[in-house]
Write a structure and sequence with these properties.
The protein is α+β, with helices and mostly antiparallel strands. Helix content is 19%, strand content 38%. Strands 1, 2, 3, 4, 5, 6 and 7 form a seven-stranded antiparallel beta sheet that branches. Strands 8, 9, 10, 11, 12 and 13 form a six-stranded antiparallel beta sheet that branches.
Length: 306
């Protein structure tokens, strides 16, 4: 379930008519998140926590009055405990709740996890963030309003949660489609996705499509691929929102040692950006272009779209 968020509620003990809410954010992973060991870089985890926090307060808050908390806060501290390495997969879940509310701050707790084939939870990270509402125009902190306190109270669980949420099942699209989720950190000061991030979006779309295309092909041929050229046309700004955009990728040319992948990012029928990427089969030993294995090239030809 790439780029989809979910919220779950349970009755709050001793809270009268207030429903206690635990929030589940399904965070898509990107190839660019990995370090040289093939693990999600420790810094990127903090990005995942931020995405879950913004999503909880902005998208699934029971009250629109929490919108100011999504972006109008500063992080006073983060405490992060790394439990095990996280490798590349479609997505990982981030569970979020409030553990403390004070006059001018509140604390969020997180658990980053997925589930194994038996449905058992595998936890990669636990963390907390201390956040303070902030008036950026005046460069000063402020107190929580009564309305904001009411919203946060719905997420408040001072102790260990009585019920944990489950990661939704995967819904991979077998076509050349990839859902493009925009992270809060992708957006520049103008409220648009930064131009550099488009390259990352097209890269992710390309990798996802090829992972599906060559899933049954043996990986012992030692083929490496490098980018020789990347052309991107920016048609309309991509904005931050909870719903993902759509990327479509296809093979548009096949040469002797190189091939092109064309792609578009759309919002419904509206074209936002297009790209054309030339990739070259590469021999890591000689550091030169090489001919790809015949079965690899044939798979490219079989999926060629002009």
């Amino acid at each position: 379930m790439t780029g989809v968020t979910a919220a779950a509620a349970r009755p709050g003990a001793g809270s009268g008519s207030i429903t206690q809410v635990r929030h589940l954010y399904v965070c898509p992973l990107r190839w660019a998140d990995l370090d040289m060991l093939g693990h999600v870089n420790n810094v990127i985890y903090v990005d995942y926590l931020q995405e879950a926090r913004v999503d909880m307060l902005r998208t699934h808050s029971p009250d629109p009055r929490a919108d100011a908390l999504a972006e109008g806060v500063v992080v006073a501290s983060n405490r992060v405990t790394y439990l095990r390495p996280l490798t590349l997969r479609e997505s990982v879940a981030v569970e979020v709740w409030v553990t403390e509310i004070r006059a001018a701050s509140f604390t969020l707790a997180y658990e980053v996890f997925d589930t194994d084939e038996n449905g058992d939870r595998i936890v990669y990270l636990r963390a907390t963030s201390l956040l303070t509402p902030f008036v950026f125009a005046e460069e000063r902190p402020r107190r929580l309003t009564d309305a904001e306190r009411t919203v946060l109270t719905r997420f408040l669980e001072p102790g260990e949660p009585a019920q944990r949420l489950s990661l939704p099942p995967s819904q991979l699209d077998p076509s050349g489609h990839w859902a493009v989720p925009v992270r809060f950190s992708d957006v520049d000061v103008y409220g648009h996705v930064n131009n550099v991030k488009y390259f990352e979006y097209f890269q992710e779309a390309r990798i996802v499509v090829f992972d599906r295309l060559f899933a049954d092909m043996k990986a012992d041929h030692g083929l490496n691929v490098v980018v020789a050229q990347m052309d991107v046309e920016y048609k309309r700004p991509i904005l931050f929102r909870p719903e993902p955009y759509d990327a479509w990728s296809w093979i548009s040319r096949v040469g002797t040692s190189s091939y092109d992948v064309s792609a578009e990012i759309r919002d419904g029928d509206t074209l936002l950006a297009r790209s054309r990427c030339t990739l070259v089969a590469f021999d890591a030993t000689t550091q030169r272009a090489a001919s790809p294995p015949p079965e690899f090239r044939q798979a490219l030809l079989d999926n060629l779209r002009t």
